[in-house]
Design brief:
The chain contains 18 helices and 2 strands. The protein is mainly alpha-helical. The protein has one domain: Farnesyl Diphosphate Synthase. It has a two-stranded antiparallel sheet with strand order 1-2. Bound molecules: 3-methylbut-3-enyl trihydrogen diphosphate (2 copies) and magnesium ion (MG) (2 copies). One magnesium ion binds next to α11.
Length: 385
């Protein structure tokens, strides 16, 4: 057991959550304290390269066990479902969430080689399975036809059938969570599902609302993305029996990493292309989902109200049967956002979150896993997929 943990100097999510309990509300307050410009002064705590293969190497063996666990399919399962399930699991993905769970479990003496390590594997499998099922549902909602470079399930199946396949994966994720036999972890897992669904629904119902507050964005990205990174790192910290202040540090890491991860995903939606992303680009604005680059673009626009009026007008024209009007508007706007300072402003903000993520590891013992967790923060801003 680690004694006398050194707490970081910046306000931590734990301190804020003591004032306002996070888990009792769907979305926690975001920016009261995590505002750009208030981060740790050293912007580059880690110097590790952004090569994901190298960064995940310390948990490679654990990740292989996670793969095997996720791919074990009940022989009684309906054959088309089994085939879809295996395709989805086998379609790859960066496996960042299970990797972070495996790394976060390495700060109180290792459980590797002990019977309890199976619980860490189960947690890692549960977060990746939950992640995959949310992607399946997300692609139905967005009508997306490409994911991880392959056709989505909804490209072949009806929306209803695809949702059911996603539900099966939810069930599988819940089963893995139960295998941790840790009621705190199971509780966190079920709360996380509620938070993700809440976030996805907020996003859906706030589409094309150009007058929404920027804070709604932070709430959404916490809910749909950062909450699951929290479940991965905090869950692993709980399973490894760390003292509560260190569990909170690892939760902070997951929170800040996840926020930055989604901001970068939202930037890539503007700047990336389908072939490198393996999923459609430019789709956020097309769907009317407002993300950080757009908020900065609007903030610095000479006539934001006129821009909003144009967007609303073009959108209603498209709805009345002229979809190409919207496509043209979005293509032009994506170009303008990319040419503006908005992308860099958003990237800077992602870096602030990553600085917090790196700083939150300071009280934890140094080891190769910590080095990878620091280096993964660099990967997040460098990634192109
Ligand atoms: C995609 O997550 C969804 C977001 C939260 C942005 P990843 O980029 O981790 O997806 P995979 O698992 O690597 O495909
Ligand atoms: C997805 O966020 C988050 C969840 C699936 C919960 P995005 O909608 O930005 O993810 P991509 O861009 O489709 O991967
Ligand atoms: Mg999406
Ligand atoms: Mg996206």
């Amino acid at each position: 057991m680690l004694l006398n943990p050194k707490m970081p100097t910046q306000p931590s999510l734990r301190e804020v959550s003591e004032r306002r309990p996070v888990m009792q509300q769907a979305t926690p307050p975001h920016p009261q304290f995590h505002r750009p410009g208030q981060g740790p002064s050293d912007p580059s705590v880690a110097s590790a390269s952004g090569d994901i293969g190298q960064l995940l190497a310390p948990v490679r063996a654990g990740l292989q066990r996670v793969e095997v666990k996720m791919k074990a399919v009940d022989s009684a399962i309906f054959a088309p479902l089994a085939s879809a399930f295996l395709d989805l699991i086998g379609s790859g993905g960066k496996r960042l969430r299970p990797a972070l769970a495996l790394m976060a479990a390495e700060f109180n003496g290792s459980l590797q080689g002990k019977p309890d390590y199976e619980k860490v594997i189960a947690l890692a499998a549960s977060v990746e399975m939950l992640h995959t099922s949310t992607l399946v549902h997300d692609d139905v909602i967005d009508g997306a036809l490409l994911r991880r470079g392959s056709p989505t399930l909804n490209a072949a199946w009806s929306g209803g059938s695809t949702v059911l396949a996603g539900n099966y994966m939810f069930g599988s994720a819940a089963r893995f969570s139960a295998e941790t036999q840790n009621i705190r972890v199971i509780h966190k897992f079920s709360e996380t599902i509620k938070i993700i669904v809440d976030g996805e629904l907020r996003q859906l119902l706030d589409r094309n609302n150009y007058h929404q507050e920027k804070d709604a964005y932070y709430q959404r990205i916490y809910a749909k993305t950062a909450s699951l990174f929290c479940a991965a790192t905090e869950g692993a910290a709980i399973l490894s029996d760390l003292p509560d202040p260190l569990i909170a540090q690892l939760r902070d890491y997951g929170y800040n990493f996840g926020m930055a991860f989604q901001i970068m995903d939202d930037i890539l939606d503007f700047t990336g292309d389908e072939s490198s992303l393996g999923k459609p680009a430019g789709s956020d604005l097309r769907q009317g989902t407002l993300t950080l680059p757009f908020f900065y673009f609007l903030r610095d626009h000479a006539a934001p109200e006129a821009l909003i009026a144009t967007l609303e007008e073009k959108f209603s024209q498209a709805e009345m049967g002229e979809p190409q009007i919207w496509q043209q508007m979005v293509a032009q706007l994506v170009g303008e956002v990319c040419a503006s300072d908005a992308i860099e402003a958003a990237r800077k903000e992602a870096k602030v979150f990553l600085n917090y993520a790196q700083a939150s590891l300071a009280p934890l013992p140094d080891n190769i896993y910590k080095q990878s967790m620091l280096g993964l923060c660099d990967f997040v801003v460098q990634r192109t997929y």
